[in-house]
Amino acid sequence: MKNRIPVVLLACGSFNPITNMHLRLFEVARDHLHQTGMYQVIEGIISPVNDSYGKKDLVASHHRVAMAQLALQTSDWIRVDPWESEQAQWMETVKVLRHHHNQLLKSSAQMEDPDPSKTPSASAALPELKLLCGADVLKTFQTPNLWKDEHIQEIVEKFGLVCVSRRGHDPKGYILDSPILRQFQHNIHLAREPIQNEISATYIRKALGQGQSVKYLLPDTVIAYIRDHGLYSSDGSWTGKGKIS
Amino acid sequence: MDTSEKTEVVLLACGSFNPITNMHLRLFELGKDYMNATGKYRVIKGIISPVGDAYKKKGLIPAHHRIIMAELATKNSHWLEVDTWESLQKEWVETVKVLRHHQEKLATDSCDHPQRSLLMDRPGRKRKWDEQKQDSSPKKPQEPKSTGVPRVKLLCGADLLESFNVPNLWKTEDITQIVANYGLICITRAGSDAQKFIYESDVLWRHQSNIHLVDEWITNDISSTKIRRALRRGQSIRYLVPDLVQEYIEKHDLYNSESEDRNVGVILAPLQRNISEAKHSNPTA
């Protein structure tokens, strides 16, 4: 019987805040990889970006990590890893992948059963770490100076990409337009999300700033956290405007 | 502080809720925010009224499951509740009659409890201390006056509005009554044809002041049909429906190819009724 390759999905991003759409990416990607018959997704990791990334309106990483933790309380396979956010400064995605890949190798080595008589488990193969992203991120590979070419290559060659479709994007087109991506397209998995769910964190922040409801767009526990800590309000403090219930 | 009289509003959503999804729940949030922001209304309650089994829609699973899922979905809401009246009727009930039922019920409640608190709680539900604390906002020491009995309005998506055109699905007089006597709050995808639709209908045009179109900026395509399809294919529906609903569906294996085949070949109740009534009144047809 053919053994499936174990896969860990890593998503990097602001998660400012985390939304149901981020969480959906994982579910859709897992279903897609399982559908191929070749992979077994064993873990998902959310890695919120470092504060020094300097993106507008980015709230402190300890909040973003805490919110992701709350969101993932009910997930049995996805977890948050604060390593990237705890580094002294921002680091390129490829370095985050390298770090987590090393961690995977270490824990795989520790888990190896020294008993030779035991039948090797189906996941005796080394787990592969793949970058999970939306099609919008794939498009950013084209943005001048945002990514180093050698990093893009390392990402798609050594690790692999699982890219979940997003409305208004043409991931196949982005791949064909880039020589590097074209060369390693076998390592780029395009997952289609048939249920459009365009919950952008930008919209969430705007709605919160205007006192509008964001219920059912992100987990209740995250909404409560945002309210309790006065995050994303228009004047930087919780004014009690609008009832979030 | 604005203490002028605002009309209290109850949002009523009718539908299959087969199953209820985060999109349904969002409709309520968007409707409430919109109506409250006009400054003329205060939304005090939202009612989910799942359709009865006699509707005979393809793939419609028994009402008691759909009710339970809606209740699980609204467990953490302070203002949404599920009403079983419609689903408990033996025959299918026209939407205008459901509106009428709830409006009359509100009128009766108002008479019985003139001093009733503005924020109606679900019956039998104790208000927790922190909810009461939230209600007594320090900025509003007095309860603003309200204008009489709360008004029920139909909350819906653009698909329901456009279904007014489906032959024999709605009685013209029902549509008229809905927009004239009650009102519609229609959540539509930004850039949809809802306005054109209203323009092209004399009845809707006449009562356009009673039709509120609310833009939905987040494309939210979580249709129950797609949820059921995903379930049949073993795909995850997490984060598209509340966790409790997803767990309930899984535990009871509610949706599969057998369930989707329910009512196949059966004519939808409103079509059945309207066509036969037309025949009855016009025997030569």
Automatic annotation (TrEMBL), chain A:
InterPro entries registered for this protein in UniProt: Cyt_trans-like (IPR004821), Euk_NMN_adenylyltrnsfrase (IPR051182), NadD/NMNAT (IPR005248), NMNAT_euk (IPR045094), Rossmann-like_a/b/a_fold (IPR014729)
What taxonomic lineage is listed for the species of origin?
A: Eukaryota, Metazoa, Chordata, Craniata, Vertebrata
- Pfam annotation, one family: CTP_transf_like
Q: Which UniProt keyword terms apply here?
A: ATP-binding, Mitochondrion, NAD, Nucleotide-binding, Nucleotidyltransferase, Pyridine nucleotide biosynthesis, Transferase
Q: Show the GO cellular component annotation of the record.
A: mitochondrial matrix
GO molecular-function term, one example from the UniProt record: ATP binding
Q: Which residues form the Cytidyltransferase-like domain?
A: 10-206
The gene that this protein is the product of is Nmnat3
| Family per similarity comment | Belongs to the eukaryotic NMN adenylyltransferase family.
Q: Which organism is it from?
A: Cricetulus griseus
Give the enzyme's EC designation.
2.7.7.1, 2.7.7.18
Q: What is this protein called?
A: Nicotinamide-nucleotide adenylyltransferase
Give TM segment ranges.
Answer: none
In terms of CDD domains, this protein maps to: NMNAT_Eukarya
Automatic annotation (TrEMBL), chain B:
InterPro entries in alphabetical order:
Cyt_trans-like, Euk_NMN_adenylyltrnsfrase, NadD/NMNAT, NMNAT_euk, Rossmann-like_a/b/a_fold
Q: Which GO terms describe its cellular component?
A: chromatin; nuclear body
**Self-association or partners: how does it assemble?**
Homohexamer. Interacts with ADPRT/PARP1.
Where does the record say this protein resides? Nucleus
**Record carries keyword Zinc:** yes
Composition bias, Basic and acidic residues: 128-143
Please tell me which top-level EC class this enzyme sits in: transferase
Give the start-end ranges of region Disordered: 112-149
Task: List the molecular function annotations (GO) for this entry.
Answer: ATP binding; identical protein binding; nicotinamide-nucleotide adenylyltransferase activity; nicotinate-nucleotide adenylyltransferase activity; protein ADP-ribosyltransferase-substrate adaptor activity
The record's principal subcellular location, in a coarse class, is: nucleus
What does the record give as the reaction this protein catalyses?
A: nicotinate beta-D-ribonucleotide + ATP + H(+) = deamido-NAD(+) + diphosphate; beta-nicotinamide D-ribonucleotide + ATP + H(+) = diphosphate + NAD(+)
**Annotated pathway, please?**
Cofactor biosynthesis; NAD(+) biosynthesis; NAD(+) from nicotinamide D-ribonucleotide: step 1/1; Cofactor biosynthesis; NAD(+) biosynthesis; deamido-NAD(+) from nicotinate D-ribonucleotide: step 1/1
EC numbers, comma separated: 2.7.7.1, 2.7.7.18
- Cytidyltransferase-like domain location: 12-229
Q: Give one Pfam family, short name only.
A: CTP_transf_like
List keywords of the entry alphabetically: ATP-binding, Magnesium, NAD, Nucleotide-binding, Nucleotidyltransferase, Nucleus, Phosphoprotein, Pyridine nucleotide biosynthesis, Transferase, Zinc
Cofactor(s) recorded for this entry are:
Mg(2+); Zn(2+)
Under what name is this protein listed?
Nicotinamide-nucleotide adenylyltransferase
Which CDD domains does UniProt cross-reference here? NMNAT_Eukarya
Entry's SUPFAM superfamilies? Nucleotidylyl transferase
Annotated GO biological processes are: ATP generation from poly-ADP-D-ribose; NAD+ biosynthetic process via the salvage pathway; negative regulation of adipose tissue development; negative regulation of DNA-templated transcription; nicotinamide metabolic process; positive regulation of adipose tissue development; positive regulation of DNA-templated transcription; response to wounding
Gene3D superfamilies registered for this protein in UniProt:
HUPs
Which family is it part of?
Belongs to the eukaryotic NMN adenylyltransferase family.
